[in-house]
């Protein structure tokens, strides 16, 4: 993520976006160190990054409408379902922090739908990535190479969120509902590079 954050700064992107990416990098580093309190600090770093994204989407996103309310109901139902299913398998000290973190993550993903289509897709992938990670913490059966899928969805999520914000920020205007649902017509922006999240998240996966 540091390279992607540097890409944002070199393009003159919003500092909040670079901050969200650096906080994600900090979260990765803390997850790599170990569990317990350090894991909670890593979760807190990611949560702070989601707050940065929420502020960005409040600034650049379109006004809420019927579409936003429908998506809010859908995302709220998804959050509640995942928390209820994960709750029994999580360690006692992780249950409440995971519930609050996932609520903030869901709010960020919903906010992303108010900006570009790329951002909405990035928010949804971030939800998927952290749900895959949480399923490992709850000791659910895992698909082959779970760390690969967590890493892939996470990096794709950060890249999509970044490109969506840069597209809105580049025009210095609020994205309308029509623009939010339309793919950009111009040339693609350069792809930033992301550091692998495999090692950081693999350390949190339960051992067989």
Quick overview of this protein structure:
By secondary structure, the protein is mainly alpha-helical. It is 72% helix and 0% strand.
Summary keywords:
208 residues, membrane, Lysoplasmalogenase, TMEM86B-like
Number of folding domains? 1
Whole-angstrom Rg: 17 Å
pLDDT averaged residue by residue: 82
Terminal CA distance: 29 Å
- How many strand units? 0
Order of helices and strands: HHHHHHHHH
Helix content: over 70%
Low-confidence stretches: 176-208
- Biggest sheet: strands, sense, closure? none
Overall structural class, as computed from helix and strand content, comes to mainly alpha
Number of helices: 9
Quaternary state of this entry equals single chain
Beta-strand content estimate: under 5%
InterPro entries: TMEM86B-like
GO molecular function: hydrolase activity
Membrane topology: Multi-pass membrane protein
Region (Disordered): 177-208
Overall description:
The chain has 208 residues and is an all-alpha fold. The chain has one domain. 72% of the residues lie in helices and 0% in strands. It contains 9 helices and no strands. The chain has helices at residues 2-10, 15-33, 37-60, 66-86, 92-112, 117-137, 146-171, 177-180, 198-202. Helix 2 (15-33) packs antiparallel against helix 3 (37-60), helix 4 (66-86) packs antiparallel against helix 5 and helix 6 packs antiparallel against helix 7 (146-171). The longest helix has 26 residues, at 146-171. The radius of gyration is 17 Å and the shape is globular. The chain starts with a helix and ends in a 6-residue tail after the last helix. The model is unreliable at 176-208 (pLDDT under 50).
């Amino acid at each position: 993520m540091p390279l992607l954050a540097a890409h944002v700064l070199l393009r003159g992107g919003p500092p909040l976006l670079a901050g969200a990416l650096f906080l994600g990098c900090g979260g990765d580093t803390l997850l790599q160190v170990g569990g317990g309190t350090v894991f909670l600090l890593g979760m807190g770093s990611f949560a702070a990054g989601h707050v940065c994204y929420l502020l960005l989407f409040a600034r650049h996103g379109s006004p809420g409408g019927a579409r936003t309310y429908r998506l809010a109901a859908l995302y709220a139902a998804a959050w509640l379902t995942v928390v209820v299913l994960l709750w029994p398998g999580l360690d006692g000290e992780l249950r409440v922090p995971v519930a609050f973190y996932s609520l903030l993550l869901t709010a960020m993903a919903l906010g992303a739908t108010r900006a570009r289509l790329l951002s909405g897709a990035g928010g949804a992938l971030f939800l998927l990535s952290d749900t895959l990670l949480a399923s490992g913490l709850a000791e659910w059966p895992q698909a082959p190479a779970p760390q690969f899928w967590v890493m892939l969805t996470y990096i794709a999520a950060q890249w999509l969120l970044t490109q969506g914000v840069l597209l809105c920020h580049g025009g210095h205007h609020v994205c309308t509902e029509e623009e939010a649902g339309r793919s950009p017509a111009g040339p693609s922006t350069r792809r930033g590079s992301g550091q692998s999240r495999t090692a950081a998240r693999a350390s949190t996966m339960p051992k067989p």
